[in-house]
Amino acid sequence: MDILIRNACKEDAFEAVPLIMEAIGDISMQMTGETEEAEITKEFVQLFTRTDNRHSYLHSYIAEMEGKVAGVLVFYSAEQVVTLDANLEEYLSNKKGAPIKIDPETLPGEWYIDTVVVDPTYRGHGIGTKLLTYAEKLVQNFGGGKLSLNVETEKEAAIRLYNRLRFVTVCPWTIIGQTFHHMVKTVETN
After folding, report:
1. What single DSSP character describes residue 167?
2. With 0-12 CB in 10 A as exposed, 13-18 as middle and 19+ as buried, what is 46?
3. Within 13 Å of residue 189, how many CA atoms lie on the same side as its CB?
4. Segment 182-190 mean pLDDT
C-alpha cells in the first residue's frame, strides 16, 4: 500500500486531532486548559485550525494511506516554539484568568518532533518510521542540525525504534510532572 506524506490542512482536524491527543495524553489538558475529553477535543480542533500555536496544521504533516489519515507528525524549530508557546500562554491565561506557563520541550537550536503517531488501524506498515524519516529530510532541507524528541521513559517499543533510527538519549526531561527521555539525532545535509 502506498503511503503519501503531505502538509496538513485545516480539514484534517477531525481525523488528526484524536491521534495527536492519544499520543500526548495528559499534555492535551495543559495545551487546551480543559479537563473533559469532549471539551479537550473541541478546543484542540480549534488549535489545529489556527495558525499561531505549536499544534497548528501549519506545523503538522499527514501520512495518508487509502485516502485516510494514517499518521501525524507535528514538527517545528526551537526558535519557532518561543512565539508559538507565548501565543498559547496568552490565550490560556486570558481563558483561565490567571497566568499559564507551557513547559518547554526542546533545547535551543533543535528541530523538534513534538508528536509522531500512527492510527492503530495502520500500525505495522512502517508509517512511524516514514514520518520520522520525513522529519529528517525536513531538517536536511533547512541545512541540517539537531533533530530531537521526548519519549516517556516507559515506552520501551518507541525507545527501541528511536535508537534504531540513531536517536541518542541526552538527558532526562520533565513535562507536566512526567518523566521523559530527551533524544537527539544529528542530521547532516546531503
Report:
1. -
2. middle
3. 4
4. 92
Indicate the SS3 state at residue 33: coil
Question: Which residue in this structure is represented by grid cell 542530521?
Answer: 187
Q: Which residues pair with residue 69 across a beta bridge?
A: 64
| Residue 52: Cβ-neighbour burial (10 angstroms; 0-12, 13-18, 19+) | middle
Please determine, for residue 167, whether its predicted confidence score (pLDDT) is greater than 80: yes
Q: Kind and range of the H or E element at 80?
A: helix 78-96
pLDDT over threshold 90, residue 79 = yes
Distance CA 174, CA 8 (A): 28
Number of Cα atoms under 13 Å in the Cβ half of residue 150: 19
Single-letter residue type at 180:
F
171 CB contacts (<8 Å, ≥6 apart)? Answer: 182
Alpha carbons 69 and 35: distance in angstroms, whole number: 26
Phi and psi at 175, nearest 5°, equal -130, 125
Integer Cα distance of 184 and 98 in angstroms: 34
Q: Give me the chain's average pLDDT, please.
A: 94
pLDDT in tens, 23-71: 998 889 888 989 999 999 999 999 999 999 999 999 999 999 999 999 9
At residue 34, the 3 state secondary structure works out as coil
Using left for φ > 0, alpha for ψ between -120 and 50, and beta otherwise, residue 176 falls in left
